Sequence to fold (619 residues):
Amino acid sequence: MVKYYTVKGEEYLMMIIYKLKSVNKFIKKYLSNFQNKIIVCFILCTTIPLLAIGLISYNTSVKIARDKIINSNLLINNQLKVDINNRIMQIEHVADSIQFYLYSLNNTPVFPLSNYLNTFNNTSNNIDVLKNNFNIFYINAFVDPSLIISNNKLNFNSLKAIEKYGVSENELINLGISPKWVFRPKQVFPYMISNTNLGVDSIFCYRSVKYNKNDSLLYAYFVSIKSDEFSDILKNSTVDNSISNYIIDDDGVVVAHSDKSKVGSTLDNEKLSIIKQNDLHNGLSSYKDSEILSSKLVNKWYIVTDIPQKYILYNTFPLIKLIFFSILLLTPVFIFIAISLGKELTKRLNKLSTIIKSAKLNNNSIQIDNLNELIDPNSVHCDDIDYIALIFQDMINTINDNFNTILDLSIKKEKLNYDLLQTQINPHFLYNILDSIHICNSIGKFDIANQIIIDLSKFYRYVLRTSENLITIKEELEISKLYLSMESICKDGNIAWNFYLDEGIENFLIPKLTLQPLIENCIKHGIGQGKNKISIDISIVYYENYILITIKDNGIGINTDKLIDIQSILKNNGVDNKYLGLSNVNARLASSKISKEHIKITSDLDSGTKIQMILNQII
Fold:
């Protein structure tokens, strides 16, 4: 299974690479056109600033919205702080009043009992008045268990019952004169007070008084309000449900919250640390995906406003939508303007490019069409394209002049090269014949020498009769026959030859002295090493649209190394003195562009040699 997914992953990766290469190839092809480059450049120059402006506008909008939302919530937070602090101070003032009433009760002698009970009733009534007038949920006093009033169970209880409220006597003894604030979730109260046995989320403000003599607890009292009271204040001041207002104690426990379901939860240490340090940052800090506003209350608790980043973004959405649609509408307009402007600016340049591409060689000169349409002869001012067109026109005229000059020089050079190769053949052939005449005279064969001289004069009469380099195949065959006749006389008639011609082929033209040097090679290199006779077959036939000439002998042949050397020279159209006749003819045919390809030669030892050449049909 792992291997299967690996193979699939590799195939997917290869497909992505192939797509990227295709896209890259398309981009390179598209940008190869200058007009497309200009258009792309204009599009980038218009869209990039537009997108940059949109991005800057977006960031500015978010910043403005953030500052506006934070400032408005900062005002709300400050107002909440004032309201909550006022309520806290009010409750502490109530606690001060209760302190006075309890102090009076505590200083009243138990006896006479009627007098004491009267004071107790007055104290209890005053506490009820405070409770009702200041909207206190519950006021409970804890007194010495020995007192008769400690069994009241409603507003007065024994000090032993104080631990039901999560506070020990030791804590109360060490409390001091300042009130203590504490949150108790699901605190159980008398049923007559809470009408429920499930408990109530409560906030206590409590005080205690101790004996100066022995530091024992004299009495304590609790002023209780529901946590819901603060939660309702926070909720009513919240501008949106996504924004949270809450109060936490010094341990990070949520005492009241705009969302009551979160009352009693505890903040993580990192967030609590940020809230406590907010005084160093003007009451504002960022935490994860929200902005936190906080300030300290008079009872050392913290009131906090938690603003999510998504709320800030949501409030900037209308402006962002406006920016987005503006960019969406303006981008096609700018692209259209860029394309139109790019095409207009490059129109004349494209026309010049088209004219240049249409330039063609005709009758040994470069011709261009419609160049005059690009240049306004009546225009006083010329732009860069006009100058380029004028320079191009002058350049074409100069090239045409130079081309004709170079063509004349090339023709003259080719003729000189051809004549030079031709002059290499004539002396070479003449030296061999004169050498044969000399041998005949030396051995006393004067009649043979005379016949050779007669044939030689006829030979040169044919050769020198015309100054043209091309002669008919018929004339070339006459020259070859005269040469074979002279060589046959020199070799005592040991040379036999045959000519095979297709009908009408003798009227085509070939370079002068094409066959004779090759026949000379057959005789010179075909006789020797015990072989005194040779037969030469010359075939000239039609071959497709060409003429195929084959010269085949039954001489001693050529060894492999020498044959490879000859074939290499012929392939490179070179001239080598070792194989002057063969390489000279090959070079002349290549120089005059008459042959389709270089001369082909094959040979087998003791079997003979075959030479083939394919020539163009020239009349």
